[in-house]
Amino acid sequence: MPRAKKNKIPGDQALAEAFAAVDHTPLLDELGVEIDADELRLALTHRSFANEHGTLPNNERLEFVGDAVLGLTIANALFEKFPSRPESDLSPMRARIVSRYGLAEVAREIGLGAHILLGKGEETTGGRDKDSILADTTEAVLGAIYRQHGFNPTRDVILRLFGDKIDNAHWIQDWKTELQERVAELGGNPPVYTATAAGPEHEQVFTAQALIDGTSRGTGRGHNKKTAEQNAAREAFFYLKDHPETIALRKG
């Protein structure tokens, strides 16, 4: 006789069971704030889990909110901490702090990965430690805190979690040098930069491309050419961190 098919668990039930299977108290202790179970469950639901179980909502809308609150909080913190620094310094400081890698570092510090609800595919391919998933979920959790508690408590959480990064933000990294050294390690040709300017002369915005072996690997913008090139180099550096195989090795 053919084997009877197992009844598939409804999506809502699967979500409730997966969420209840993990003790989220340690995470809430790290955050230092209470979050309603429904809001926290949504913040931790990655799209891979939602898609695997039908049409469940995922955390991307909360991520959208958290990204905005995080960006504003970090920008204002840097504005107050470095009153003599120009915008051309503050922008790369903020970009470094709220980058995928900066967010992922914070996520690992608070043990966020163990709490994320993932689909089987992401689970088996190390999704709990992927920078992109950790970063997005961090923003979603911040979005959940904001929706429940408002701006000031969320700001306090952010300043506590990102305090060290804000304190050390005065160190401006030379991304062009970092990129050139990384490309050399991989055997590629030195990066080449192109830049264009748009807008009236007193309000020009420069857009730069970081070209490696003739292909753009990073785009950056700024109110001067130097800043735009640094931002392009930064984007290219992190692109190569994820995709080192894209560098065509020099032939001996």
Automatic annotation (TrEMBL):
The active site is at D67, E139. Residues 40-150 form the RNase III domain. Mg(2+) binds at E63, D136, E139. It catalyses: Endonucleolytic cleavage to 5'-phosphomonoester. Keywords: Cytoplasm, Endonuclease, Hydrolase, Magnesium, Metal-binding, mRNA processing, Nuclease, RNA-binding, rRNA processing, rRNA-binding, tRNA processing. One of its GO terms (biological process) is mRNA processing. It is found in: Cytoplasm. Its cofactor is Mg(2+). Belongs to the ribonuclease III family. NCBIfam families: RNaseIII. Digests double-stranded RNA. Involved in the processing of primary rRNA transcript to yield the immediate precursors to the large and small rRNAs (23S and 16S). Processes some mRNAs, and tRNAs when they are encoded in the rRNA operon. Processes pre-crRNA and tracrRNA of type II CRISPR loci if present in the organism. This is Ribonuclease 3. The gene is rnc.
